[in-house]
RNA sequence: GGCCACGUGGCGGAGUGGUUACGUAGCGGACUGCAAAUCCGCGUACCCGAGUUCGAUUCUCGGCGUGGCCUCCA
């Protein structure tokens, strides 16, 4: 079976063939670290995590190199740093903000079941590569200096606009921005700009005396070059990055290296809305990953990483996705069902799984799940395959389901086998067992009134009682 | 204004030129002391109009609606 991926560059699904199967290379645009990541930021992280897992499955774990950058030089970072640490030197404040935010980001996406990329380069650690690129572009005539800025001259690149499928004429006609006086063409973009005295700055390229800082796009060209080479296989990100960010990355990299491509395959995930509306701070529907995980702000309850991840994967990655409480509730039901199915009966109790963890971690994904993903990451069909597996009550089917869930990163081992938490319940585990015993005694005496009273009492505390067919009684924490 | 996506059953969401995906909610039944869980069954959907076709939800054109980009927002 071959992997087929939709390529924004050609607008077609293409058979994916890595430039070098022994070294499959993927770059994804990562976060700008100044605040908690929101749920829209989580989508590309999860989508490309699934692709990373699939590539590792196909080519081998050591054969795939996944690079996701961390943007730590940006006006928003500067503003946040000055706001939070007004008494510190700006550079010190920036360091504190970016380090703290990076930690938050990692904690959040770890909780969503995402593997760490192989490299997470920081922009500020690649200033030399950026300067190098800029020098090459100036030397080759693709860039020029104007008022201490270095600008990329879009008219010098024949293919400019190919990714976004826009001609320069169209873009200029639609432009609504005031054009800076130092630009030769309104669409020329900044590679390097002078720093104000209180801003972070580095020695400038192209003979500029004033210290400066990089433009937005150059960092990704520099970091992908450093860690993946002049050309590589896959470049991903949100669809809003197609223009101008990715278009400009392509311009920089291709013109600096004189190559026909930067990345072979360009992939973009669709946009996310919240309850049918654009997510924005002004609408008050802005929701961060952390708020979903650790507060009751969205849907009046906390959500596990599994539920968030499944909700993200229910929709094909290129489709628009509406983030709703209803969808999270549905994911919760589905995951609960799978967990129940996997841990019910015979050898599949929680305790047994815990004891045999090593063996369980070796279970492979079902072929139907993998082949669904091979078709441009058809998540919906993969999940459909999971549902079909979950209807079969056999050891083989359960192993395949477990293996598939682990492969997709949905039901992680920890979330699968962990004891349900009593922390938030107004009853201890020992007390619960005593009440269940009391109820079963009442049932033996056919004292249904008392039996039902105890069940209602426990239900009010959030514990659902189930009398199984084999005469045992089990319980589950209700939501 | 320019460019580009998307519009499927109560809800979510794949897919296909003709043959009921899947899930979730709901309803009915089995099981149960009653429940829960589970199992079985049920709904007969594809924005509107025109065209192509023997036949369109699927292709083409137009319309309407929603969203994205053109403003360093994934």
Question: Could you list some keywords that capture this structure?
Answer:
elongated, 15 strands, 3 domains, Isoleucyl-tRNA Synthetase, Domain 1, Rossmann fold, single chain, RNA-binding, alpha/beta
Strand content: 5-15%
Instruction: Determine the mean pLDDT.
Output: 88
> How helix-rich are the residues, as a percent range?
40-55%
For the report, how would you describe the main beta sheet?
4 strands, parallel
Kindly name the structural category. alpha/beta
For the record, the CATH architecture of the largest domain stands as: 3-Layer(aba) Sandwich
Low-confidence stretches: none
Which term fits the overall shape? elongated
The tally of strands reads 15
Strand order of the largest sheet: 4-3-9-10
Per CATH, the superfamily of the largest domain is HUPs
Structural domains: how many? 3
CATH class descriptor name of the largest domain? Alpha Beta
Short description:
By secondary structure, this protein is of the alpha/beta class. 44% of the residues lie in helices and 14% in strands. It has helices at 39-59, 75-84, 90-111, 127-139, 168-174, 218-228, 242-257, 289-294, 305-313, 325-343, 350-355, 357-360, 367-374, 379-390, 395-408, 413-417, 429-444, 448-460, and strands spanning 4-7, 12-15, 24-28, 64-68, 143-146, 149-152, 189-194, 212-214, 232-238, 263-269, 272-274, 277-278, 321-323, 463-467, 473-477.
């Amino acid at each position: 079976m071959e992997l087929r991926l939709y390529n924004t560059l050609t607008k077609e699904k293409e058979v994916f063939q890595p430039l070098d199967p022994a070294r499959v290379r993927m770059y994804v645009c990562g976060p700008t670290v100044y605040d908690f990541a929101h749920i829209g930021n989580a989508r590309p992280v999860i989508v490309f995590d699934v692709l990373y897992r699939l590539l590792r499955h196909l080519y081998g774990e050591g054969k795939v190199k996944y690079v996701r950058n961390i943007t730590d030089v940006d006006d928003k970072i500067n503003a946040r740093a000055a706001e939070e640490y007004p008494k510190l030197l700006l550079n010190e404040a920036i360091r504190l903000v970016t380090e703290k935010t990076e930690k938050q980001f990692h904690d959040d996406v770890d909780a969503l079941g995402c593997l760490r990329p192989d490299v997470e380069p920081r922009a500020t650690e690649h200033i030399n590569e950026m300067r190098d690129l800029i020098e090459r572009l100036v030397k080759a005539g693709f860039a020029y200096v104007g008022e201490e800025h270095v600008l990329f001259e879009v008219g010098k690149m024949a293919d400019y606009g190919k990714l976004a499928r826009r001609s320069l004429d169209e873009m200029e006609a639609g432009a609504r921005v005031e054009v800076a006086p130092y630009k030769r063409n309104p669409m020329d973009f900044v590679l390097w700009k002078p720093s104000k005295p209180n801003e972070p700055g580095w020695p400038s390229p192209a003979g500029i005396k004033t210290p400066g800082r990089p433009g937005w796009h150059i960092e990704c060209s520099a970091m992908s070059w450093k860690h993946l080479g002049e050309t590589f296989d896959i470049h991903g990100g949100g669809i809003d990055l197609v223009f101008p960010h990715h278009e400009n990355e392509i311009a920089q990299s291709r013109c600096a290296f004189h190559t026909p491509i930067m990345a072979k395959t360009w992939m973009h995930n669709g946009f996310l809305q919240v309850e049918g509306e654009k997510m924005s701070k002004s609408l008050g529907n802005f929701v961060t990953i952390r708020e979903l995980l650790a507060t009751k702000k969205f849907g009046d309850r906390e959500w596990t990483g599994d539920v968030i991840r499944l909700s993200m994967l229910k929709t094909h990655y290129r489709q628009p996705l509406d983030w709703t409480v209803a969808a999270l509730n549905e994911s919760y039901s589905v995951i609960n069902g799978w967990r129940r199915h996997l841990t019910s009966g015979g050898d599949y109790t929680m305790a047994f799984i815990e004891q045999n963890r090593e063996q369980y971690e070796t279970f492979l994904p079902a072929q139907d799940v993998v082949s669904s993903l091979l078709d441009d990451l058809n998540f919906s069909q993969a999940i459909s395959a999971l549902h079909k597996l979950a209807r079969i009550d056999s050891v083989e089917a359960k192993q395949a389901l477990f293996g598939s869930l682990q492969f997709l990163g949905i039901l992680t081992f920890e979330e699968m086998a962990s004891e349900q938490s009593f922390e938030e319940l107004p009853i201890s585990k020992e007390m619960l067992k005593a009440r269940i015993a009391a109820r079963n005694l009442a049932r033996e005496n056919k004292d249904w009134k008392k039996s039902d009273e105890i069940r209602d009492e426990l239900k009010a505390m959030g514990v659902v009682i189930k009398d199984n067919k084999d005469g045992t009684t089990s319980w589950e924490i209700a939501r």
